[in-house]
Specification:
- An 8-stranded antiparallel barrel has the order 1-2-3-4-5-6-7-8.
- Helix content is 16%, strand content 42%.
- Strand 1 and strand 2 form a beta hairpin.
- By secondary structure, the chain is of the alpha+beta class.
- It has one domain: Lipocalin.
């Protein structure tokens, strides 16, 4: 009987160390919410669709251009997309959570200021701050911006 109890407690302990799939899902889902990049000019809402994470513009400091019309993606390299409104535009795409590294990676970030799409990774600093790193090639050549959560997730 002692042998079985020892095995039971050992397996429970190993299970606690490994972390459950539910705990990993909760960690991954911490990215979901509304975030403000450091320049304060927009809010980006990050959602989970399937097993991937995406972010779209939900607010702009200057939503309209000098003519009073909604700002559009005028720098997009695809001419057909240059009349697409920036509000609602998906700027973060295809992020997957890597449990081992504790980051969201293999995604891209689009910069409407210059019409360029960069590789990107996101790291949670705490429940209300993320580091978003856009880069070309390897993560060594890029820029990191700190985003702040606007709406605390319940």
């Amino acid at each position: 009987m002692k042998k079985y109890l020892s095995l039971f407690f050992l397996s429970c302990f190993i299970g606690l160390l490994a972390g459950s799939p539910v705990q990993e899902k909760e960690k991954a889902d911490k990215l979901v919410g509304v975030w403000q990049p450091s320049d304060g000019r927009s809010y980006i809402k990050i959602d989970k669709i399937g097993n991937k994470f995406y972010g779209r513009v939900v607010w702009l400091l200057e939503p309209n251009d000098e003519n009073g019309k909604p700002r559009v993606d005028k720098n997009n390299p695809d001419e057909a997309l240059r009349s697409t409104p920036l509000k609602g535009y998906r700027v973060l795409k295809d992020f997957a959570y890597d449990e081992e590294e504790g980051i969201w990676k293999d995604g891209t970030i689009y910069d409407p200021k210059n019409g360029t799409t960069y590789n990107c990774k996101i790291e949670l600093v705490n429940d209300n701050k993320i580091e978003v790193r856009g880069f070309v090639g390897t993560a060594m050549f890029g820029r990191t911006d700190v985003w702040t959560r606007l709406v605390k997730k319940k």
